[in-house]
Design a protein that fits this description.
424 residues, mainly alpha, two-stranded antiparallel ribbon, 22 helices, 2 strands, 69% helix
Length: 424
C-alpha cells in the first residue's frame, strides 16, 4: 500500500493550496514503520486518482480534477481516505471560488475535515474559523458564533476573533451577552496596557441604546469618557444622554441646565446653540445673572456672533431683569431669617450663576438646614458650587447624597466629571 504525506493546504482559500503526494518509493518496511505516524495509508483505488487529482489541482485544471476528486470520494472507505478526499475537494472548491464561484461548495469538505480524526488540531481550528466566516456571510449569526467559538477552543489565535464573536452575539439579538463579552475584552486589553479603539465604545453604546438597555448604555458611556475624556466626547455624551430630543434619559429644562453647567465648568460648550439655549433656559428659570454670564462667555469665546439677534435680545432682557432685581445682599439677609429654605435655595441659585461659590455653598446649606425644599435638587447644586470652588471631596459628598432618578444620575455624571474632567 502506497503512502500519502499527511499535510493539508498551507493556506485555506489562498488559491492553489495543495496536498502533497509522496513520491512512489521502494521504502523498506522498517522505514515505513518509522514514518507510520506521519503518513496516511491509501488503497490503490484511492491512491491513483488522488495523485492525478493532485497534479490537476496544482495546475488549477478544474475540468480534469473534478471527476478525479469525485472518484476519490466514491472509493474512500477509511478515515485516512476520507480525509484525503475532503482535502482534495476543499482544494478544488477553493480554486473554483477564486475563479468567481461562491463559497457554498466549501461547506461540506470543511465540515468533513473538522470532524476527521486525521486532521491536525491547528488545521481544525483554521477550518472552524473559515466555517464561521461562511456562516457570517450567509447571515447566520448563530452558526457563525458556534464555529468561531469552536475555533477559539481549538486554539485559533486572531486578535479580531473576540470582537467578531461580540458582534455576532449582538446582531443575533443577544445584546446583553455581547455587551458582557465586550466589557471583558476591553478590561483585558486595558489590563494588558492596550487602549481599546473609540469605535468599540461607540459600538457598544449604540447597540445597547438600540436595545433600550439604558443602564448598560450609561455604563459604556462612562467607560468611554474614562478612556477618552475629551471636551467633544463629554459634550456628545451628555447631549446624547439627557439634552437632545429622544435622549437616553427624560429630563426637564431645570435638570438639563445642570448638565449645561457641567459642560460650562469643563469648558466643553460647543457652539452658538449650546450657549444660547443654556442662557435661554436659565433666564426662563428666573436666573438672569447666569444667563448674562453664559452669553458674555460665549461672545468672548467667539462662539456667539456679535450680530446674533437672539443673543443680543436675551442679553438685553437679562440686564434689565438684573437691574429690576436690585441687590442680592438684601435678599440674602431675608433668606437667613425665613422660616424655610426656599428663599435661601433660590438666592444660592443666583450666586451660582454669578460664580460666587462661597455664598452659594453657604446658602444651599442653609436651605437644607431649614428644609421645605427639594433636597435632591439642592444637593445637586451644592455639589456644583463645591466642585467649582475646588472642593472635589465636598462636592462628591453632596452628589452622593442625591437620590432618585434622574437627579441621582445627574449627580453621578458630575462625580464622573470630577474623576475624568474634559481635556482638550
Amino acid at each position: 500500500m502506497k503512502m500519502l504525506s499527511n499535510a493539508v493546504m498551507a493556506a485555506l482559500l489562498a488559491g492553489g493550496a495543495t496536498v502533497a503526494l509522496a513520491q512512489p518509493a521502494l521504502a523498506q518496511k522498517k522505514d515505513e514503520k518509522k514514518d507510520q505516524g506521519a503518513q496516511l495509508k491509501l488503497s490503490n483505488e484511492v491512491r491513483g486518482p488522488a495523485a492525478q487529482a493532485q497534479t490537476a489541482l496544482a495546475a488549477k485544471d478544474v475540468n480534469t480534477a473534478t471527476p478525479l476528486v469525485a472518484q476519490v470520494e466514491a472509493a474512500a472507505k477509511t478515515d485516512d481516505e476520507k480525509y484525503i478526499a475532503a482535502a482534495l475537494r476543499l482544494n478544488l472548491e477553493a480554486i473554483k471560488m477564486d475563479s468567481g464561484g461562491g463559497s457554498a461548495g466549501l461547506t461540506a469538505p470543511l465540515d468533513a475535515l473538522i470532524a476527521s480524526p486525521r486532521t491536525p488540531q491547528a488545521d481544525k481550528a483554521r477550518y472552524a474559523y473559515q466555517r464561521g466566516v461562511i456562516a457570517a456571510n450567509a447571515k447566520d449569526p448563530a452558526g457563525a458564533s458556534r464555529f468561531f467559538e469552536q475555533a477559539q477552543q481549538l486554539g485559533y489565535n486572531d486578535p479580531n476573533l473576540p470582537l467578531q464573536l461580540v458582534k455576532l452575539k449582538m446582531d443575533s439579538g443577544d445584546v446583553a451577552g455581547g455587551s458582557a463579552a465586550l466589557a471583558k475584552m476591553v478590561d483585558q486589553q486595558v489590563a494588558a496596557g492596550t487602549k481599546p479603539s473609540e469605535d468599540i465604545y461607540k459600538y457598544a453604546i449604540a447597540k445597547n441604546n438600540q436595545a433600550k438597555n439604558n443602564a448598560e448604555t450609561v455604563a459604556w458611556m462612562r467607560r468611554y469618557l474614562a478612556a477618552y475624556p475629551t471636551k467633544k466626547n463629554w459634550r456628545d455624551m451628555l447631549t446624547f444622554w439627557g439634552i437632545q430630543t429622544q435622549a437616553v434619559a427624560t429630563l426637564d429644562k431645570n435638570q438639563k441646565v445642570d448638565l449645561f453647567r457641567l459642560l460650562r465648568t469643563g469648558k466643553a460648550l460647543a457652539d452658538q446653540y449650546d450657549y444660547e439655549i443654556y442662557a435661554q433656559w436659565t433666564f426662563d428659570q428666573g436666573l438672569p445673572w447666569e444667563s448674562k454670564a453664559v452669553l458674555t462667555e460665549g461672545k468672548a469665546a467667539g462662539k456667539i456672533p456679535a450680530d446674533s439677534a437672539n443673543a443680543n435680545s436675551l442679553l438685553a432682557a437679562s440686564n434689565k431683569s438684573i437691574s429690576n432685581e436690585g441687590s442680592m445682599a438684601a435678599v440674602e439677609a431675608r433668606a437667613q431669617k425665613a422660616a424655610d429654605g426656599k428663599l435661601a435655595a433660590s438666592t444660592a441659585d443666583a450666586y451660582l450663576g454669578t460664580g460666587e461659590w462661597a455664598k452659594s455653598v453657604a446658602l444651599y446649606r442653609t436651605a437644607l438646614q431649614k428644609g421645605g425644599v427639594d433636597a435632591n435638587t439642592v444637593n445637586t447644586r451644592l455639589g456644583i458650587a463645591l466642585a467649582n470652588s475646588g472642593d472635589a471631596a465636598g462636592a462628591k459628598t453632596a452628589f452622593q447624597a442625591v437620590q432618585g432618578s434622574p437627579r441621582a444620575d445627574i449627580a453621578a455624571w458630575w462625580i464622573e466629571f470630577l474623576d475624568h474632567p474634559p481635556q482638550a
